[in-house]
Specification:
globular; mainly alpha; single chain
Length: 228
């Protein structure tokens, strides 16, 4: 019986390493364990789930690892600490917010109608995911320059608003566009906070939310002549 070189090497490997260590040994065998190729995404997904369940204060890299069904050391390959992981969660939140706003505005070609629908998308996302919203908009990550991915995701979430304001106010100055965009943002952000704090319901009926949001956003004055 003869063996080629490959077979000899294989037999030597089996002899010295009868139970080879594979990535599956490093990642828990818990049902739904993730391949190492998408481990970071899995960790962020688990962290989002924990944030949304109200476990932010107790959230830790080890806790996220346990939730994701991976080894306790796994998160440290992608995040140096809890803050960096939460920045990734906030970035994912901004990307999800952008997608949600665009989804709510899909099919509306009139710029003013599209603007109102984007506003509704902002309120709807934020009210339905309050803990994630508060993390995204909280003071901890408002300083730019520390987490480039978060900075990019936050800036991209403002793009649909800015682009639509420009459509609403053609030939307007940059100052006028920024003023209008700030007013539009203030309306939907303020409405969101009032709803989450239980205060808006004392003034108007917020159910259904879509009707309430559109009733509020329509009061934004987009008269191109009204500027400083």
């Amino acid at each position: 019986m003869t063996f080629d070189l490959y077979q000899i090497c294989y037999l030597d490997a089996v002899k010295y390493f009868p139970k080879p260590v594979t990535m599956s040994k490093l990642i828990s065998k818990k049902s739904g364990a993730y391949h190492h190729g998408n481990l970071k995404s899995a960790l962020i997904k688990s962290a989002i789930s924990m944030v949304e369940s109200g476990s932010l204060d107790q959230l830790s890299l080890r806790g996220v690892a346990k939730h994701a069904g991976v080894s306790r050391a796994a998160p440290y390959h992608h995040f140096k600490d809890k803050r960096e992981m939460l920045a990734a969660v906030a970035a994912a939140g901004f990307r999800a917010l952008t997608s949600h706003m665009l989804e709510k505005a899909e099919g509306y070609s009139n710029p003013r109608e599209k603007l109102d629908r984007l506003g509704y998308g902002y309120v709807d996302f934020s009210v339905s995911r309050p803990n994630l919203f508060r993390l995204m908009q909280g003071p901890e990550f408002q300083t730019t320059g520390h987490y480039p991915d978060l900075d990019t995701a936050r800036a991209m979430s403002a793009s649909p608003l800015m682009d639509t304001i420009i459509e609403c106010l053609p030939n307007s100055s940059e100052t006028r566009v920024r003023e209008a965009a700030s007013a539009a943002w203030a309306i939907v952000h303020g409405m969101t906070l009032l709803i989450l704090d239980g205060r808006m319901a004392t003034v108007i009926d917020v159910d259904p939310l879509e009707v309430a949001a559109l009733c509020i956003t329509k009061h934004l004055n987009l008269d191109a002549s009204s500027s400083r």
